[in-house]
Design brief:
alpha+beta; 41% helix; 3 helices; globular
């Protein structure tokens, strides 16, 4: 019976860590926008994700890490990719996202229906030797 309590604690602990990652990202993005360091306000939320990008640690129905660019205009695909590169080029962040169950990085603008998505496992450099 006691192992069930540990399982529940671990589940809520991981959920709390996922919430903290989203909250910290949104807080940093807001600061960067308000201080003029970033031209666009970004906001993250968890979504369903893409089932084709699932991995062993994916959270069921919560594998998407969606960044919405609140730009006030429709952004071209190359700018959405540029926003995604901020995350994709940070291996430590990618590994954290994967370990917490996210499998899909999505970037969308707040106008129109354009967006791009990436499988996080392809950017985590999983399976190699550590340097």
């Amino acid at each position: 019976m006691w192992h069930k309590i540990i399982d529940v604690y671990d589940w809520f602990g991981e959920l709390g860590e996922r919430i903290k990652v989203v909250r910290d990202f949104n807080k940093a993005a807001k600061f960067a926008f308000v201080s003029g360091q970033a031209p666009t306000l970004l906001q993250v939320k968890t979504t369903k994700g893409d089932s084709n990008y699932r991995h062993a640690f994916s959270k069921w129905m919560a594998g998407g890490f969606r960044i919405k660019a609140l730009s006030g205009q429709s952004l071209p695909k190359n700018q959405l990719i540029e926003i995604a590169r901020v995350v994709l080029d940070n291996e430590e962040l990618i590994r954290k996202l994967v370990s917490l169950g996210w499998d899909t990085l999505e970037v969308h603008d707040n106008k129109g229906f354009k967006g791009v998505k990436f499988p996080l496992k392809d950017y985590a450099k999983i399976g190699g030797f550590l340097n």
